[in-house]
Structure formats: structure tokens, C-alpha cells
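Course assignment 3, question 2. Fill in each field.
Student: A.L.
Task: Predict the tertiary structure for the chain below.
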Amino acid sequence: MAHGGGGYWINPGFGNRNYGFVGVALWRKVADAPNRGVDWFHRTPSAVDVRDSTGCNVGLTYGLAENWYVVSSVGSLLENRATTDQFSCHMALRLTF
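Answer field:
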């Protein structure tokens, strides 16, 4: 399964810039096991002295019930890593309807 999207942030404040974000994800559904996936993303600079960043994450989605899921990912930037974000992780509870 594949999905993607993007957005545009309005980032007010001295030294800040409005910035864009785009990403794409590929997921593999595995019966009776967490779904596995990988995503790639790119973000334009969010401040005057910040550079573009491109990264890659790996993640899992596990169904708890019909509409409830635990979503997690971990990854690192591939571009401008030292000056932007060296490592990121996230975990969420997702409700679909």
C-alpha cells in the first residue's frame, strides 16, 4: 500500500519562514502481525538560518480493535543532518472512522 501528501506551514515570528513538507510512504500488510513500512519526506527551510531537510523513517502500525491503531516510527535525516534534526521517533494512537 502506498500513500503520500504534503502541506504548507505558516510560521510567523522573527527569523522564521513559511515552509513546505511533502512525503510518501510504502506499507506492507502482514496478517496477524504489525504492518511494516518506510517513508521518505522533504521539508523546505523553516527559519532564516535553517537548511532543507530530507529524511527516511521506518515504522509499524498495529491494530488494537476495528478502528483503533498504534502507530510508531523512528528515523533520521539523510540531508543536512548535522544542522537540522539528527534523529526522530514518534508513537501515536490512531482512530479511524
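Instructor remarks: The CA atoms of residues 30 and 36 lie 8 Å apart. Residues 2-95 form one domain.
Grade: pending
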